[in-house]
Design a protein that fits this description.
binds 1,3-dihydroxyacetonephosphate, eight-stranded parallel barrel, TIM Barrel, single chain, 12 helices, binds glyceraldehyde-3-phosphate, globular, binds zinc ion, alpha/beta
């Protein structure tokens, strides 16, 4: 099976009350850990590449690694550009074989976001590629995109219908209180998401797939591992998993996860070096890191996304 778009995945996820995991990939071990877990559980999958990942690993290497995963797993896999910020970047990924792109115009004015998104949609749809747009701004840091605390804004439900109609996007990323990175909520406060905004958006866009960014749970087991073995992340707090499950049962069809993968990999490698200080073969520490990613993704598929058995 070749790479697929997310169209069919989202239709089934919307109707079935579950979500597809969109996992960020940067190298071979991450791709293998994710795709082996999805294969084991027969789950559909979105692998997403940020512009930072593309600079780090090179478009062709990532493309070929993902193609290898398609051959090895036989799963429906969608290859998606995460947070494309220009028409040129989206065009380059579309021309280079991606089946889905995000154009993140959320830092522009509303009208400029509409114009830029429409331009990407026209180019993508002519080539059979789907497009995710964004309305509202998430806080947090993701390599190229930095939004300071207090500068984020919730999605305005009054704008969503107009935005979807005028741009022709296939899915919409919204802001309801999640944020990028490992520090999502103030320590000592109760994490909260604006489910009332999500409900209102779904009411105005019946049947339309919604995307949740910044959706790592910041799994305490891995944060504790990092802190135990020389790291310093005491205030890391993520989105509680029951909230993600609730979103997946509603209109959220795509849940983005990157930080959890980073924490799993880093915690495992820190532990490995602490326990094996004289080992210097990279395979020795990358193998348990890959296994940790496998375990984490299997947990997300079964217990958070609910997409096991849906490939
Ligand atoms: O939300 C974006 C992802 O976490 C990607 O992060 O730009 O550091 O690769 P990155
Ligand atoms: P996290 O930082 O919560 O993993 O979010 C990732 C994301 O939204 C990628 O676009
Ligand atoms: Zn994101």
């Amino acid at each position: 099976m070749p790479l697929v778009t997310s169209t069919e995945m989202f239709k089934k996820a919307y109707d079935g009350g579950y979500a597809i995991g969109a996992f960020n990939v940067n190298n071979m071990e991450i791709i293998q850990g994710i795709t082996e877990a999805a294969k084991e559980l027969n789950a559909p999958l979105i692998l997403q590449v940020s512009s930072g990942a593309r600079k780090y690993a090179n478009h062709t290497y990532l493309m070929k690694l993902v193609e290898a995963a398609v051959i090895e797993t036989g799963l429906p896999i969608c290859l998606h550009l995460d947070h494309g910020d220009t028409f040129e970047l989206c065009k380059s990924c579309i021309d280079g074989g991606f089946t889905s792109v995000m154009i993140d115009g959320s830092h522009h004015t509303y009208e400029d976001n509409v114009t830029l998104t429409r331009k990407v949609v026209d180019y993508a749809h002519e080539r059979g590629v789907v497009v995710e747009g964004e309305l509202g701004r998430l806080e947090g840091v993701e390599d190229e995109v930095k939004v300071a605390a207090g500068e984020g804004s919730y999605t305005d439900p009054a704008q969503v219908q107009d935005f979807v109609e005028r741009t022709g996007v296939d899915s919409l990323a919204i802001s309801i209180g999640t944020s990028h990175g490992a520090y999502k909520f103030k320590p000592g406060t109760k994490p909260q998401l604006r489910f009332d905004i999500l409900e209102e958006i779904s009411r105005r866009l019946p049947g339309f797939p919604i995307v949740l960014h910044g959706a790592s749970s910041v799994i305490p087991e891995f944060v504790e591992m990092i802190n135990k073995y020389g790291g310093n992340m005491p205030d890391a707090i993520g989105v509680p998993e029951d909230m993600l499950r609730k979103a997946a049962q509603m209109s959220v069809c795509k849940i983005n996860i990157d930080s959890d993968l980073r924490l799993a990999m880093t915690g495992t490698i820190r532990k490995y070096f602490a326990e094996n200080p004289s080992v210097f073969d990279p395979r020795s520490y990358l193998k348990p890191a890959r296994e940790a990613i496998h375990g984490l993704v299997a947990h997300k598929i079964k217990n958070v996304l609910g997409c096991d058995g849906k490939a």
